[in-house]
Every structure is written in C-alpha cells, then in structure tokens.
Amino acid sequence: MQSEQQQEKSALFVTALTSFMAPFMISSVNVALPAIQSEFGVDAVTLGWIPTSYLLAMAILLVPAGKFADIYGRKKIFLSGVVLYTLASTVAAFVPDVGWLLAMRAGQGMGAALFVTTAMAILTSVVVPQRRGRALGILVSAVYVGLASGPFVGGLMTRYLGWRALFGIMFFLGIGILFVALRNLEGEWAEAKGERFDLVGSLLYGSSVFCLVYGAIRMPALFAGLLLLSGIGLMVIFFLHQSKVESPVFEVRLFRHNRIFLFSSLAALINYAATFAVTFQLSLYLQYVKGMAPHIAGMVLMAQPLIMALFSPWAGKLSDRKEPRVLASMGMAITAAGLAVLATLSLATPVWLIVIVLLVLGFGFALFSSPNMSAIMGSVERRYFGIASGTVATMRLLGQMISMSVATIFLVIFVGRKEIGPDTLPSFLQSMHVCLLLFVLFCVVGIYFSFFRGKKKEEV
Q1: 376: confidence class by pLDDT, cuts 50, 70, 90
Q2: 15 and 44: one domain?
Q3: Residues 267 and 380 in one domain
Q4: 67 and 249 in contact (C-beta within 8 Å)?
Q5: Same domain, 436 and 375
Q6: How far is CA 341 from CA 231, 253, 281, in A?
Q7: Of 195, 210, 233, which residue is a domain's last?
Q8: Which residues contact 133 (CB under 8 A, 6 or more apart)?
C-alpha cells in the first residue's frame, strides 16, 4: 500500500499529463490544418470538421461519462478513455483519407471526455481538502501549458516531421500514462455504485448539447439559430426528466439547492464566454493590423497562457486558505479591466502594451479559475464528484462556443462576407471593440455570481 502523499503524487501526475495532452492536441492540430488540407485536398467546410468532430464528441459524452464513472468506477473509465484516445491517435497517424481522420478525431473526443471528466474527480477523491486547491491549480496549469506549447511545438513538428507526427506522439504519452496509472494508482472510487444509469437522460443530454454546440459553431446562419432553439428546448426537457427519475445522469438538485455549485458553474460559463475568443481576435489583429507573421503573432499570444500556467497552482494553493469567492471575483475583475483596455486597440497601439495586457489577463484568469474550480468540487458530496467534474468541463466547452459565436456574429455584422484587408480594417476594429465591450459586461455579471455564491463548506 502506498502512503497518502505517494497516492496523491501518482494521481496528480497521471491527471496532469492527461490535462496537458488534450489541449495540446487541440491547439497543435489547428496549426497543422493547412498541411492536412494540402495533403488530402479537402474544402474549407470539411477542414473545419477536423476540430469540430473532436469537440462535438467530447461535449456529448462529458456529463454522462461522469455519472457512469461514479457508478462503475472512476479509475476504470479514466483508463478506458486513455486507451481509446491513444488508439484513435495512433490510427490517425496512418489514415489514408480525411474520412478516416474525422472518425479518429471523434474517437479522440470520446476518449478525452472519459478521462477529462474523471481526472478531476479522481484527484478530488484522492487529495485531502486542505491540499485540494493547490492540486487543482496544478491541473489547471497543465491545461494552459498544453494550450501555450501546442501552436509552437505543433508548428515545428508539422514543418520538420509532418502533421502525422502530432498524432503519433500521443501513442507514447498514452502508454506512459497507462503504465504509471496501472502501477501506482490504487483505488476505484465508485461512491454511486449500485445506482441505475439513466440512458434516456443521457440521450436527451447528448442531443441537446449536439444542437447547442453545432448551432453555435455554425452561427449566424438561420438553421444554426433553429438548432440553438432546439438545443435549449431539449435541455429543458432533459432537466424536467432528471427531476423525476430515481437515478438521474445529472443531479439537478445540485443546481436547485446548492447555491455555491450553481453560482460557481455560472461564473465559469460566463468567464469562458468572455475570454476564449480574445485569442482569436488578437491573432487577426496582430496579423492583419500589425502585419506580423503567424509564428511571431503566436509568440506574442503565448504571454497569456504562460502566465496562467505559472500562477494557477499559486492561486489554487491560496484558495486552500482564503475564500475562493473573493479570489475568483478579484480575478474576474482584473480580467474585465484587461478586456476594457483591449477594447481601445487601434492601428497605432504599441505591441508592448498588448503584451502587458495579455499578462494581466493571464493573471486574472489564473486567479479566477483554480479557486472557482476548487469551490465547485468542494461544494458537492463525494458521490457527485464525477458529475461535478463533467459540469466544469461542459461549462468550459459551452462558454468557449458562446465566445466564438459572439465574435463571429460581430464580424459578420461589421465586416460581412468580405476578406479582412486594408479596406475593411476599420470595420474589423469596430467589430472587435464592440465584442470586447460586451465581454466586459459578461465579466461584470460574472463577478456578481462569483462573489455572491456563498462561503465554501468546511470539510474534514
């Protein structure tokens, strides 16, 4: 038997590595899309499905996977996810056409859903409450290291080894995770063992998320709006169904009777909705307005996730001693201030000022994310850890989709279907300014939910 601290270290190692692996794959593959298009000769719509198929598969399974893990064992589901992800990645490195690649990307998304939703639950189960914030901070840091290193490492690998190497390297990471987990990770953690799995609820949830995510991706087309309305309707039916079944796939009472969980989850959704598209907008700004080469723009944009990675463990550790709602609210306020400055960008804004604002945004997000995540996981009983973990991941994904949809809608309104160039730069800047001001408003609403969630529960 391992000591308590050895078990914590093993759990932290394997969960941090999977938390790095998934975002690294997302950001590195985005850089490789032109090379994939060149090899397979696909159109832009098909190319867009390479990241979309991954996100959709992941979003659909996140919450059901969390409940399934609570019933049948988090370690089993975690390892199953790593195996599926590793197999799909390995096959993707040798696919003969884009159809196979899309199928393997969906397989990766399914595997990622299984280990993403259980990683946080396992870590929360293993680590004592007094050290939970620090551990979750390291987990958040691993996510940002993956996001920050993906474009740079992915660009180098694509250039010198080819895009298939990005998928091939996942085989070695997956085997390493499985080896450490099977050898050192003891326990199973199935506090909801014996409950029935709600298949109908899972299908309703999956259908709803499909309509919401795909509708958000395809905005502002008319059918996308219909999909979003259908998704909202299905989500209402899902919540009504969950309130009636004996063993729901999602415990709606967590939202009805747990103010900390409800307000913290809403704050996470709002924070991601207010920040995710900023990188997308600044990437266009730096390349079209400032005339930077893509790799130079990428280096500038790395400032934000690097600061997130550096300060997330510190913020998580601080939340073990201080009220998470205070720290998270301060982080949201700092983020709002940074977004307000970015809303004033012009043709003459110096790059050094943009870098400073990105550093401030990174610090604000780190100060928000780890304490907020610790508050969510600390507000529920152990048997709901999988559901809570899946909720966090779902809020992140839906927030990202909302953020990109808002940015896209404003681009269509102000720039239209024209290419961004010298003639449309004023319109592009105007769309970015209005969008960022709306994101500031999002943060103001988010501060309310963050600060008035209530004090954290004392645990033993």
Answers
A1: confident
A2: yes
A3: yes
A4: yes
A5: yes
A6: 35, 40, 14
A7: 195
A8: 316, 317, 318, 319, 320, 324, 370, 371, 374
- Domain of 33 in residue numbering reads as 1-195
Same domain for 64 and 187? yes
- Within-domain flag for 240: yes
Judge if 341 and 218 occupy the same domain.
no
For the record, the structure tokens of 293 come out as 């080469």
Residue 60 falls within a domain, yes or no? yes
By C-alpha distance, which of 63, 185, 129 is closest to 377? 129
Indicate whether 341 pLDDT > 90. yes
| CATH number assigned to the domain comprising residue 190 | 1.20.1250.20
Does residue 366 share a domain with residue 228?
no
What is the count of structural domains for the chain? 3
Q: Which two tokens stand for residue 69?
A: 């893990």
In a domain, 251, yes or no: no
Which of these, 120, 156, 162, 147, lies nearest to 16 by C-alpha position?
Answer: 120
Report which of 173, 157, 184 is spatially closest to residue 8, judged by C-alpha positions.
184
Q: Which of 246, 279, 305 is the last residue of a domain?
A: 246
- 276-312 confidence digits (pLDDT tens): 888 878 877 887 888 887 667 777 888 888 898 889 8
Nearest-angstrom CA–CA distance, 324 and 294: 38
Q: How far is CA 240 from CA 199, 200, 383, in A?
A: 15, 12, 22
In a shared domain, residues 20 and 123: yes
Shared domain check, 370 and 326: yes
Q: What percent of the chain has pLDDT over 90?
A: 27
Do the beta carbons of residue 456 and residue 375 sit within 8 Å?
Answer: yes
DSSP classification of residue 457: P
Tell me if 90 is assigned to some domain.
yes
